[in-house]
Design brief:
This protein is an alpha/beta fold and 341 residues long. 39% of the residues lie in helices and 16% in strands. Helix 1 (13-23) packs parallel to helix 3 (58-67) and helix 1 (13-23) crosses helix 14 (323-336). Strand 8 (223-227), helix 12 and strand 9 form a beta-alpha-beta unit. It has one domain (5-334): CofD-like domains (Rossmann fold), CATH 3.40.50.10680. The chain is built from 14 helices and 10 strands.
């Protein structure tokens, strides 16, 4: 019997959802752990955090859905329920996601967010494990090159117009936070650690700067992989090429990715034009990475039309990675590195 590869995915948002959705198809070959950023203070998660003192559960909910068993007929209704967002709920429920509400309620009933996540994991029969990076209440803080200090993930993610001409020079969380149970062990035992795709500062590094997560990644013997973003993010990564992303990851993690996955397929011109209105542009592949990172290039683009759910006030990515394409490329990597018996 073959031993499963242990794969850890770090991040949050739609990029991590795509990676987890794709890896789920190979759950008979890999053991999957998702470590989710926990600094979200916007939309439904932010409101629940403010009103109930609950942990931000939006990214956790998305990871649970990504790994849920979609081969069971009875799971289809459950998946729809966990994705449902109220659009006619008055001031109280309007904009809230049912899955977020349920996770918060279960956390209060069972006494911990960990217990709530475990129960939902069983309900959805997920193909892996979902862990919050921390169960402490933390705030993401970005300091820009002009000295401005912005507190709160939502304020960094949706910045004022003047931030487009400035660069984030420091990212941290307050308090520093302690890694949640299981996070350290998962990383130290991992064969592969995957970071991205996702907003560099508010989805990926937002998890890395918690506690001593960065030091644990450095200590881990697992192969470190970065899946490069497709588009820049206004107020965060304007003008960044792939080498700049790698440089920032090295700065905060203390380790250079062993591999970087880069899309080389042309992006739809009509969608590029929509991004340009918001001053966001395709991420260019650097001619020289300046390190030992191995580049894996290919067509990783999804051709599926992105639809925004009713009541969702967060601006979502229009150009995304294809779950099947990216997971297939990842599988080829671990098969290539598997010793022949």
């Amino acid at each position: 019997m073959k031993t499963k590869k242990k794969v850890v995915v770090i991040g949050g948002g739609t990029g991590t959802y795509s990676v987890l959705s794709g890896l789920k198809a190979y759950s008979d070959e890999v053991s999957i752990t998702a470590i989710m950023a926990m600094s979200d203070n916007g939309s439904s998660s932010g409101r629940l955090r403010d009103e109930f003192g609950a942990l931000p559960v939006g990214d956790v909910r998305m990871a649970l859905l990504a790994l849920s068993d979609d081969t069971r007929i009875d799971n289809a209704s459950l998946r729809s329920l966990f994705s449902y967002r109220y659009v006619k709920g008055g001031e109280g429920l309007n904009g809230h996601n049912f899955g977020n509400l349920l996770l918060v309620a279960l956390g209060e009933i069972l006494g911990s967010q960990h217990s709530a996540i475990e129960m939902v994991s069983r309900l959805l029969n997920i193909k892996g494990v979902v862990l919050p990076v921390t169960t402490d209440s933390i705030s993401l803080i970005a300091t820009y090159d002009d000295g401005l200090r912005v507190v709160g993930e939502s304020s960094i993610d949706e910045p004022s117009e003047d931030r487009g001409s400035h660069t984030i020079i420091d990212l941290t969380v307050e308090p520093r936070g302690v890694l949640a149970s299981g996070v350290r062990e998962a990383l130290l035992e991992a064969d592969y650690i995957i970071l991205g795709p996702g907003d560099l500062y508010t989805s990926l590094l937002a998890a890395v700067v918690v506690g001593d997560l960065a030091q644990v990644i450095v200590q881990s013997k697992g192969t470190f992989i970065y899946i490069a973003n497709l588009m820049s993010k206004f107020g965060q990564t304007t003008g960044y090429d792939t080498a700049t992303y790698i440089s920032e990851i090295k700065k905060y993690v203390g380790r250079v990715p062993d591999y970087i996955f880069i899309n080389t397929h042309p992006l739809p011109e009509e969608l590029i034009a929509k991004y340009a209105v918001a001053y966001e542009y395709p991420v260019h592949d650097a001619e020289n990475m300046g390190n030992d990172t191995v580049c894996v290039k290919g067509d990783f683009i999804s051709t599926e039309e992105v639809r925004t759910a009713k009541g969702n006030t967060i601006r979502r990515s229009l150009i995304r990675h294809d779950a099947e394409k990216i997971s297939s490329a990842l599988r080829a990597l671990w098969l290539e590195n598997t010793p022949k018996v």
